[in-house]
What does this fold into?
Amino acid sequence: LTFQLTILGSNSAIPAHGRNHTSQILIINNEHFLIDCGEGTQLQITKYKCRLGRINHILISHLHGDHYLGLVGLISSMHLQGRKKPLTIYGPPGLAEIITLQLKYSQTVLNYPIEFKELQEDDPVIFQNFNMEITAFPVNHRIPCFGFLFKEKVKPRKIIKEKLPDWATSKDFNDLKAGKDIISPKGKVISFKTLTLPPKKSRSYAYCSDTRFMPELKTVVKKADLLYHEATFLHENIQWAETTFHSTTIEAATLAKEAKVGKLIIGHFSARYKDLSPFLVEVKSIFPNSELAIEGNHYEVSE
Amino acid sequence: LTFQLTILGSNSAIPAHGRNHTSQILIINNEHFLIDCGEGTQLQITKYKCRLGRINHILISHLHGDHYLGLVGLISSMHLQGRKKPLTIYGPPGLAEIITLQLKYSQTVLNYPIEFKELQEDDPVIFQNFNMEITAFPVNHRIPCFGFLFKEKVKPRKIIKEKLPDWATSKDFNDLKAGKDIISPKGKVISFKTLTLPPKKSRSYAYCSDTRFMPELKTVVKKADLLYHEATFLHENIQWAETTFHSTTIEAATLAKEAKVGKLIIGHFSARYKDLSPFLVEVKSIFPNSELAIEGNHYEVSE
It folds into this structure.
């Protein structure tokens, strides 16, 4: 099953050097999530041949323009494309008010319903379906801002078909997949461990942008297969990161290392840097399995 | 002196086929006016090497997203670039409320002042300086919408230096330029017509988007050197133009012809058309001096 992240934008505050504002699409098993939606996101979606109509959930981390100004245009384009199915938008307090005001003045009555879900610090699980859930967690920025953790639920154990007894019922089958022992018609308990293999791993993706370095996040993003963490500045400019509530390369890589994640992707680069190669050198010095968020690139997590 | 229009975006509702949402820059004698500001305008400004810092006046025709959604991002980038000088924004009622709400939630305190000027149907002159003025006029769209006419004031007459009498004072000089007769020390009235040539023409540019065809606009845009008029649809699709309050090629060209303008530029093309060449064929059949609004193109009016 698919678990794929696509980068649509990787630059911070001012778009520059061909880099657009933050946006990403995460696909988990056919469910498409749009994470942040900077200005021009709908153009990037077209450019990289993503499918607007497949997106049913949009998550906005915070209300700085470079993370949400593309949202009204996107909502409008969905409307003009004839969308009927509901759209759910998760964002900090204020987002619904902003969108509603803009739709009011354009006298737009959408032909599909939008449900706004306001992110709260004490309500971590914001979405779940049969095979995954999303939690939101506060990060440390100048205004209220949230990170997101996407995690597959525990998967069914794999039945070793050649060992399955003839008398096993469909209930036995489901019990074994769920890791429960079964009982034979003669009353003998048979351990699920002898008839099944461990489940495939439950994959996870953590998104942390924008934030000051938070070492305590290592428990939240622990062992995520994929961690996106902002690295707005090179480490020599740590004073700028401190004053603007952003992170540096070394800080992002340190979190990745301490949380023992699988792969680190850094992004949200400041417009002051044209050449990003020093970013990669710095993060790899701490956490070798790191990559730059490059627009149009896909990052897959295999099962 | 410069009188130059640059197209930054030419598509309607949904950006498509590499065409962006509406925005233009008009430069008249070093004053830079941004006309409409669809999503992604700041990227287009960078792409076409226009200078963000030179823009002191932004005019928004109406509050459909494809004409103003790039405004908050642009305001924010001006702030981040260290702008100090004031910015004046002209737009329909509601624009100030939308922008102010977004700045509130991003907790942005701009380091330069913005003055919002609300467009009203009965207050046509919205800006003037020593050499030009702008009037706003209502057009016929689904929501309140304005066109703009930029017009140079009458220019000074050109003095024929070799005919100027030795006794002429600086006051005489100014009177002649203003088209007034002067009096010699001996009391003789000398006609300004004998000492001056007619002034250079006063150039004008009219912007009409978005609107249903309004034949009565011909008096408003009469003899404009340059007329931009929306032509969202080919004429065979006039029923779509009628229901969505837009215009067709033939309608735009008819207005240009009846108003005896110098040149017609059409834009605001529907995303349903990839190939624009039929647009040009249709407008030229009525008004030969027509061009398509092509992004990055400059249209100059000579003196």
